[in-house]
Known about the structure:
The protein is α+β, with helices and mostly antiparallel strands. It contains 4 helices and 5 strands. The chain has a single domain (3-118), classed as Cytidine Deaminase, domain 2 (3-Layer(aba) Sandwich). The chain has helices at residues 3-14, 54-64, 87-96, 115-118, and strands at residues 26-32, 37-41, 70-77, 101-106, 109-114. A hairpin with a 2-residue loop joins strand 4 (101-106) and strand 5. The structure holds 2'-deoxyuridine (DUR) and zinc ion. Its cofactor is Zn(2+). Residues 1-126 form the CMP/dCMP-type deaminase domain.
Amino acid sequence: MNDRELLELAKQARGHAYAPYSGFSVGAALLCKDGTVFTGCNVENASYGAAICAERNAVSTAVAAGYREFDAIAIAAEGDGCVYPCGICLQVMNEFSKDMRVICQDRESWQDFSLKELLPKGFDSL
Ligand SMILES: O=c1ccn([C@H]2C[C@H](O)[C@@H](CO)O2)c(=O)[nH]1
Ligand SMILES: [Zn+2]
């Protein structure tokens, strides 16, 4: 699974987004170290604070299936330009795979970051 293919799965997942309040649909595709892929979309709620981002949805789905080691996550958001994961999602990724990569759609292409680059000093109580 290369970055382009992973991003394509993120775009497909974006089609399932439930975002009637923000109107901002996001999809994510999470590549596990063994090659398994989990996807997620943002799911909003009438109680706005109950919304979950696409990235955390994908990570939670993977963890619930017994996967905790991730290689990369691709993110496809609405509109033009690069959308980076929010701080909470970065922190959640940091919990499981500090060395993972973050691939953000940017128009017809993408940008590739390390998680460390986007969250240089994540909280860790261990
Ligand atoms: O990286 C991001 C940024 C935002 N959102 C969602 C949360 C909310 O539903 C909507 C607007 O912030 O987009 C994501 O899923 N991922
Ligand atoms: Zn988030």
